[in-house]
From TrEMBL:
Region Disordered, residue ranges: 92-117
Protein name listed in UniProt: DUF559 domain-containing protein
InterPro entries named in the record: DUF559
Top-rank taxon: Bacteria
Taxonomic lineage of the native organism: Bacteria, Bacillati, Actinomycetota, Actinomycetes, Pseudonocardiales
Domain DUF559 residue range list: 24-85
Amino acid sequence: MVDAGFPLPTPQYEITTLDGRLLYVLDLAWPEVRVGLEYDGYEAHEDRATYDAERDRRMADRGWITVRVRKDAFADPAVILEQLREAFRRRGRDVELRQPPTRLRDRRTRRPGQQTR
């Protein structure tokens, strides 16, 4: 995401009540614009759609936009980046996307100096 032009996110960002009680932990967050990204891995989120929708509603009540990403979405990161860009735009922060690797996997397996296809 950073390579695509987004600011560095905060991992495992804690959302707490005013008295400090932990409510939620976002996988990635940009607290300055109140945008969070949640990775819904198959094992952890199977059969949790209702719970996740309620959690997203409660986060929205606290002023947060939650972008949800399922494992299969990583096959085309452009979709994720566009959803994230729209969330930032709704917060008045336009992010100019740079050209990320075609697939996230390409970046992880590339050797230094090796070109992507």
